[in-house]
Specification:
single chain; mainly alpha
Length: 61
């Protein structure tokens, strides 16, 4: 019974260790690119939400 519970946990820990060793700190250029793309995505989603909100208010009245 205990072995059935420990096997998935051990497998998960092994997978986590593999990912941890593959990680590295991004360069400044990579970080800036990721930040820009994320900001653009947030702005697009915000603008889309705003347009939907405005159009819903216009149609409901």
């Amino acid at each position: 019974m205990v072995k059935k519970l420990l096997t998935p946990a051990k497998s998960f820990i092994v997978k986590c260790k593999r990912v941890w060793h593959a990680l590295r700190k991004p360069t400044r250029k990579e970080f800036e690119t990721i930040a820009k793309v994320s900001a653009i995505g947030i702005l697009i989603l915000g603008a889309l939400g705003f347009l939907i909100s405005i159009s819903m208010k216009m149609f409901i009245k």
